[in-house]
């Protein structure tokens, strides 16, 4: 199971790429494997306010619907329309396909380092 | 096979319309069709063969074992159909004067009386069309209760993480926010987490007991008390009532409102679109808010009471799916006071027997004894051999068995949720257990082959992603 070293992670299996006060969010390989083939992704719209720990959107796979939990409080500044059009891309390349970007981050969830996230995956296995 | 539209042959007919014996009336042009409807043109023989062919391709509880967890696919006794096809029930019009449909009103009043006895409720409506609609009705009753008391700060509904997906959806649909409470080690509600979650903003709790893990939450009285003490009301999701019907009543567990799936627990046909009936029963404190009208017995027979000023209004046109209520009442009267608890006892016995027989082969996620259903997890096999719950389910199709519910509850990975129901004999259960053991052995020996199954069905593995993303549900005539 790959866990890139340049990203941060949440305990609910989102990855976060931090760039100044912006954050890009995606699903980890573990999340994408657990969910199975994705069929729909619902994301907030650009300009929406999101809250750390709050539901950010949801992903629907052939098995189930799951919430995406926001890693931070802030404003949605970009959404990856290509991912909305072909959710299967997330299964093909989970770390290559971001879902949304949050700007003006005022508060953050506790984020895990790649090492901590790897440990979490081992514990859950 | 062809769709019925593709089998159409221009000019073919099967109905001879008798000559018109009433004066012809010309409809205003605004009400007439601009073009003829697209109807298939077929002979009666063709139609009969078309639908027989379709019927041959379906699989129902009349064909064999159908252990769809939390769906209670029990056998539907033929006497139910006989009663529901009596002309006094099928030939009535919903706007007929009340004195001409006394029998129908009596059915609704009697069904209400018996089902209230079984659930420990005081009044009941039959308007909701099925389970999720019943949930919405029940939660709207809770909303109306708080509203009528001027208690408008109650905006949250508490739902455990083992809940049916319809529970949080219902809460949101009714305008509430949903608070998720985790399960404890035994699979019941974590009481400490529940105490933390309740407060002045708690409108109520939605719970099914036994829950989706097949476990009866023994803390139920404490759970409903925590909610009541916080000023909330308790909603019982009746999806799993088959485990406890006639043994223990939601009303005695502290619930204020309950929905029943008459189409599950009370043996009326379901699957493939119903019709269902999501009857909602409630305690006296919620009765003024029930949907109207409501069938009541009066001095001059039965009447429909429309005088319910605090009612949440109509949930469905007319009186709900009435013939489903006829079937449910027939079931209750056929089984009677002794038969109802015997049915739930056998449902629980069958599930425990199957679970025990399989426990030396499969990993069972339900801890201790189960109620009417149990959970198998293929987590270990998935990690070690790459065989998924889907693969096992597909293999069951080749054995001629309908697979159980898959990937639910969400809190157990790679799971199968098995509910055999009371109407299966030990012989059938033994056959299914043997089949499941054969499948397990095959998965151990040749895991790769499992991904190729099924091989004996008309359609093998449909493209589920395509079916979800680009379903074709209309026939386009111009193609």
Largest sheet of chain A: 6 strands, antiparallel
The number of helical segments of chain A is 4
**Spatial strand arrangement across the major sheet of chain A:** 1-2-3-9-8-5
CATH class of chain A: Mainly Beta
At CATH's second level, what is the architecture of chain A?
Answer: Beta Barrel
CATH superfamily of one domain in chain B: Type I PLP-dependent aspartate aminotransferase-like (Major domain)
CATH topology descriptor of chain A: OB fold (Dihydrolipoamide Acetyltransferase, E2P)
Poorly predicted regions of chain B: none
Task: Report the helical percentage of chain A.
Answer: 10-25%
- Indicate the mean pLDDT of chain B: 94
Structural class of chain B: alpha/beta
CATH superfamily placement of chain A: RNA polymerase II/Efflux pump adaptor protein, barrel-sandwich hybrid domain
Characterization of this structure:
Chain A has 125 residues and is α+β, with helices and mostly antiparallel strands. Helices cover 22% and strands 40% of the residues of chain A. Chain A has one domain (8-109): Beta Barrel (OB fold (Dihydrolipoamide Acetyltransferase, E2P)), CATH 2.40.50. In chain A, the strands form 2 sheets. A 6-stranded antiparallel β-sheet of chain A has the order 1-2-3-9-8-5. In chain A, strand 6 (55-61) and strand 7 form a beta hairpin. The model of chain A has no long low-confidence stretch (mean pLDDT 93). In chain B, the strands form 3 sheets. In chain B, strands 1-7-6-5-4-2-3 form a 7-stranded mixed β-sheet, with helices on both faces. In chain B, strands 10-11-13-12 form a 4-stranded antiparallel β-sheet, with helices on one face. In chain B, helix 4 packs parallel to helix 11. Chain B has a domain at 79-334: Type I PLP-dependent aspartate aminotransferase-like (Major domain) (Aspartate Aminotransferase, domain 2, 3-Layer(aba) Sandwich). The interface between A and B is small, with 12 and 11 residues.
């Amino acid at each position: 199971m790959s866990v890139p070293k340049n990203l941060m992670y949440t305990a609910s299996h989102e990855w976060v790429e931090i760039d100044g006060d912006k954050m890009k969010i995606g699903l980890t390989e573990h999340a994408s494997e657990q969910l199975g083939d994705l069929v729909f992704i619902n994301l907030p719209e650009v300009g929406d306010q999101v809250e750390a720990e709050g539901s950010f959107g949801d992903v629907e796979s052939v098995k189930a619907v799951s919430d995406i939990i926001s890693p931070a409080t802030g404003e949605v500044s970009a959404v990856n329309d290509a991912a909305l059009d072909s959710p299967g891309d997330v299964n093909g390349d989970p770390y290559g396909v971001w879902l949304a970007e949050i700007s003006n981050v005022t508060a953050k969830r506790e984020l895990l380092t790649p090492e901590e996230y790897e440990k979490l995956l081992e514990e859950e296995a | 096979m062809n769709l019925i539209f593709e089998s159409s042959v221009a000019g073919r007919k099967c109905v001879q319309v008798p000559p018109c014996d009433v004066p012809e009336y010309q409809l205003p042009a605004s009400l007439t069709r601009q073009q003829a409807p697209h109807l298939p043109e077929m002979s009666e023989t063709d139609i009969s063969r078309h639908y027989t062919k379709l019927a041959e391709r379906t699989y129902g509880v009349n064909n064999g074992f159908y252990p769809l967890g939390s769906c209670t696919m029990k056998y539907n006794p033929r006497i139910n159909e006989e009663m529901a096809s009596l002309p006094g029930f099928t030939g009535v019009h919903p706007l007929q004067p009340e004195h001409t449909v006394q029998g129908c009103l009596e059915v609704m009043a009697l069904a209400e009386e018996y089902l209230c006895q079984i659930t420990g409720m005081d009044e009941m409506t039959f308007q909701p069309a099925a389970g999720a609609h019943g949930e919405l009705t029940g939660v709207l009753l809770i909303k109306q209760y708080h509203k009528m008391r001027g208690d408008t700060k109650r905006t949250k509904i508490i739902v455990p993480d083992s809940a049916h997906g319809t529970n949080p959806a219902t809460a949101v649909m009714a305008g509430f926010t949903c608070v998720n409470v985790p399960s404890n080690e035994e699979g019941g509600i974590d009481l400490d987490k529940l105490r933390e979650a309740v407060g002045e903003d708690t409108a109520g709790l939605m719970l099914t007991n036994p829950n989706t893990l097949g476990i009866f939450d023994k803390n139920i009285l404490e759970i409903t008390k925590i909610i009541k003490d916080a000023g909330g009301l308790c909603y019982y999701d009746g999806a799993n009532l088959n485990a406890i019907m006639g043994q223990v009543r939601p009303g005695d567990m502290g619930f204020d409102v309950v929905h029943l799936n008459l189409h599950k627990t009370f043996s009326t046909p379901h699957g493939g679109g119903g019709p269902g009936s999501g009857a909602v029963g409630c305690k006296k404190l919620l009765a003024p808010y029930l949907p109207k009208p409501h069938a009541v017995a009066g001095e001059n027979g039965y009447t429909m009471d429309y005088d319910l000023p605090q009612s949440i209004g109509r949930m469905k046109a007319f009186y709900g799916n009435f013939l489903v209520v006829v079937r449910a009442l027939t079931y209750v009267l056929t089984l009677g006071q002794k038969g109802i608890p015997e049915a739930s006892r056998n449902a629980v016995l069958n599930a425990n027997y199957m679970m025990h027989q399989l426990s030396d082969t499969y990993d069972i996620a339900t801890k201790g004894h189960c109620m009417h259903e149990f959970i198998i997890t293929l987590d270990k096999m998935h990690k070690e051999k790459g065989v998924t719950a889907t693969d096992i389910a597909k293999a069951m199709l080749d054995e001629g068995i309908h697979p159980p519910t898959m990937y639910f509850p969400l809190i157990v990975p790679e799971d199968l949720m098995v509910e055999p129901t009371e109407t299966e004999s030990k012989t059938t259960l033994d056959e299914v257990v043997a089949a499941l053991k054969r499948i397990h052995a095959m998965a151990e020996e040749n895991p790769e082959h499992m991904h190729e199954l099924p091989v004996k069905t008309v359609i093998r593995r449909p493209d589920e992603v395509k079916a979800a993303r680009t379903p074709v549900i209309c026939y386009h005539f111009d193609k």
